[in-house]
Amino acid sequence: MSKFQALTLDRVALRFGPFQALDDFSLTIRAGEFVSLLGPSGCGKSTALNCLSGLLKISSGAITLDDRRIDVLPPERRGFGMVFQNYALFPHLSVRRNVAFGLEMRKVPKAEVEQRVERALATVRLANQIDKLPGQLSGGQQQRVAIARAVAIEPPLVLMDEPLSNLDAKLRLELRHEIKRLHHALGLTTIYVTHDQDEALSLSDRIVVMRDGRIQQQGAPEALYNAPDNLYVARFMGYRNAFPVSMDRATAVVGQGPGAMRFDGLAAPSGGQAASLAFRPDDVKLASTGIAAEVAQVEYCGQQWLVDLRVADGTHITMETHERVAMGEQVKFSVAPERIRLFADAYVPEAG
Ligand SMILES: Nc1ncnc2c1ncn2[C@@H]1O[C@H](COP(=O)(O)OP(=O)(O)OP(=O)(O)O)[C@@H](O)[C@H]1O
Ligand SMILES: [Mg+2]
User: Fold this and answer.
1) Where are the domains of the chain?
2) Distance (Å, rounded) from C-alpha 195 to C-alpha 232?
3) Domain 239-343: what homologous superfamily?
4) What SS3 state is found at 295?
5) Mind listing the pLDDT tens digit for each residue in 235-253?
6) How far apart are CA 237 and CA 129, in angstroms?
7) From the CA of 45, which ligand is nearest?
8) Whose CA is closest to atom 19 on ligand 1?
9) What residue owns the CA closest to ligand 1's atom 24?
């Protein structure tokens, strides 16, 4: 399978018995794009990826690479590179042989295999580990071998299913940079599955937020971050302060009675009545006038503090601030009206 312009999923559905794991899933990925599928456990991310790779057969719809139907092809004829969460390296084969495997399967001439393996390992900065066994490498190094193996076959498309989730925080960050660098250096087209908002935001040209096998919203990271379509997407974009709301003209009222919080100067959401409201911790600002609250908890995060504020009626607000506050301190805060999002969808206590 060679170069292509676009990969298209057209109304793809997949059922496991009566269970609909993917439904009406339509998406176009252009050559060179980095697209992330983002969503909670069980929303169908791996299922979507496995439909692309050919490991799962779709129930209806079509997958096309330019004008060619590919959902009818077996995985090996699609020839996509795969990177999984758990490395999936052959433990008894050296790093060199692991990376060579896919090329040998494709009957690439020996001398060329040699060259491409060395090039792929140099790209992931593992040239000096070429004769080790996977068990002699760190988790991050093993995952880099898995990435080298996927890119060595020079696939039209690389599919990655939570490749960093087994790594510790520092390695995760390092390898994230590495994946981004490789994507640009090799001009890859990548589809990347994650449930980590930061990963999706930092890597992607486009993010696809999924829920229960369906697409909730797709767009550039900035677009989703600044203008999520609904409360579900907002929560994935870090809008940790979310509440049911009643509107009093342009004022949103959260809570009841004298302790209710009021946010003024808001415009109703497109598509009707506001049912919920959300804003991010970094949009909560300490102010001389505003809503009164008590500092209930302070967590130091290096660059800033994550502060739990309790307002009069007992509601909690999460604030990220560079100003130091003390537990028990009485403060006031405000949120700029343009940073507050109103949604027509009902508030649900916890993101699924
Ligand atoms: N072989 C199967 N038979 C029946 N149901 C399945 C099968 N594989 C997956 N499912 C169901 O399909 C849904 C989507 O699963 P999938 O593995 O795609 O989720 P995911 O988004 O990748 O989640 P995670 O983040 O936990 O990996 C789940 O509810 C799961 O239970
Ligand atoms: Mg999965």
Assistant:
1) 6-226, 239-343
2) 13
3) Nucleic acid-binding proteins (2.40.50.140)
4) strand
5) 999 999 999 999 888 899 9
6) 38
7) 1
8) 42
9) 41
